[in-house]
Amino acid sequence: MPAHRSKSEKKEEEIQLRRDPYDVLGVSRSSTDQEIKTAYRKLALKYHPDKNANDPKSADMFNEITYSYNILSDPDKRQQYDSAGFEAVEAENQDLELDLSSLGAMNTMFAAIFSKLGVPIKTIVSATVLEEAINGSVPTLPLTLGKPVSRKVEKQCAHFYSIRITEKESQAGIVCRVQSADKSKFKLLYFDQDENGGLYLALQEDSAKKGKLTSAGMYFLGFPVYKLDQPSNNMVKRDPDAAFFKKLEGFQPCEISELKPGVHTFAVYGDNFFKSANYTIEVLCAGSFVEEKENLRVVEAQISSKRIEISKFESEYKQVIAQFTEMTNKYAEEMQTIDELLKQRNEIHASYTVTSQTKISSSRSKKKVVLKDDKKASIKDGSKKKWSVKEGTHVPVRQVVKDVVTTLMGQDETHQAPLTANDVEKLHAYEIAFSGMVFGVPPPLFKHI
């Protein structure tokens, strides 16, 4: 029976079986983004499931092509792969890309549900549409600068438009924008034409919600213009810090910055899951937007610089956060240790106080018992005890006082009870012993004599 393999072992085996993305797409490591994109489109059309039904090998090849392109088309992922291979690429973080035209009704419904729940699902242009464009078999409608056209396009279908650009208009710059008042999802496409008249997809801009509508635009102003892919809502909710640092990660320059004089082709692709998309397309000459062009250039240059700054700041921020976390943990540990030590100290103090009071109380109780017993014994045996003090014997005064107080009285100096006849007799014997010396015992000892 074969040994059970862990998920990590299976993943490592999958990584080892993967081919180099550059080899998969048939490009070199020095290839440009446009060369990589062109190679991907040709291979994707060749191995697309729609053209290779019931062919598992073609399906696997298509998945491998898509996976490789997902890495090489992303500047950051491409850099990660170039530096450390597949292990540096987070495959599970890559967005899912679907060709909705190849999905059944049930799968399309699930995709729509996931999209509503916030799962980032990227859709690709139908292979059928791309193939028809390459074959030059698509109908094209003419556009006029400054005149918008409103239409409705079916889902996973495209409307193609052609427009002629003059030398003057080319130098002034061209803007193509599409809007949908009912917030339909669509893609704005730009096609390059080859020598045989075939159209190859060169640029793609997905619609985005802006206020009460969805829109997409392409700007050919003679200088690098950037596009921005925002992080998903799930990332923003899950990790706001990571979302912040990735906010400008998708700020990348467009591959094409100007349109040469001649005929150019745009298209609007319906990207809704189930219904057709209503839209309005318009192509403008940027000659009357001189100030706006300059403002855009300045702002995007600042954003580009800020993107580099944020990338550097991210590492510094993470270091500070790590230090802050370490200090916070140490603070909590030290606070806990101090509280524990103070608690032990208080317990020791409390124990000492209780023990001392108990000992004092016990000592006093024992002393009272001893004093009472001694007093009773003294009184009981007072008549029998004889003093053997010889005349002329010198006894220290302090010793006399101590003997008198402890022996005769059995209690302290504040004793007020009268002395017995036997006590007086004994005191008289002391007087004889001192040969007439004045016995200076303070009251109340002789108060009642």
Automatic annotation (TrEMBL):
Keyword terms, alphabetized:
Chaperone, Coiled coil, Membrane
Classification from the root reads:
Eukaryota, Viridiplantae, Streptophyta, Embryophyta, Tracheophyta
User: What Gene3D superfamilies does the annotation carry?
Assistant: DnaJ domain (1.10.287.110)
Looking up Pfam families in the UniProt record yields: DnaJ (PF00226)
Q: Where is the J domain?
A: 20-85
The record, for PANTHER family, names: DNAJ DOMAIN (PROKARYOTIC HEAT SHOCK PROTEIN) (PTHR44272), DNAJ DOMAIN, CHAPERONE J-DOMAIN SUPERFAMILY (PTHR44272:SF10)
**Keyword field contains Transferase:** no
The cross-references to InterPro entries, in alphabetical order and at most eight, read:
DnaJ_domain (IPR001623), DnaJ_domain_CS (IPR018253), J_dom_sf (IPR036869), Plant_DnaJ_domain (IPR052812)
Q: Does the keyword Ubl conjugation apply?
A: no
User: Which CDD domains would you find in this protein's record?
Assistant: DnaJ
Instruction: Identify the domain of life.
Output: Eukaryota
Q: Enumerate the subcellular locations listed in this protein's record, separating them with semicolons.
A: Membrane
- Which SUPFAM superfamilies does the entry link to? Chaperone J-domain (SSF46565)
Please give the name of this protein.
J domain-containing protein
Primary location: membrane
Q: Name one GO cellular component term.
A: membrane
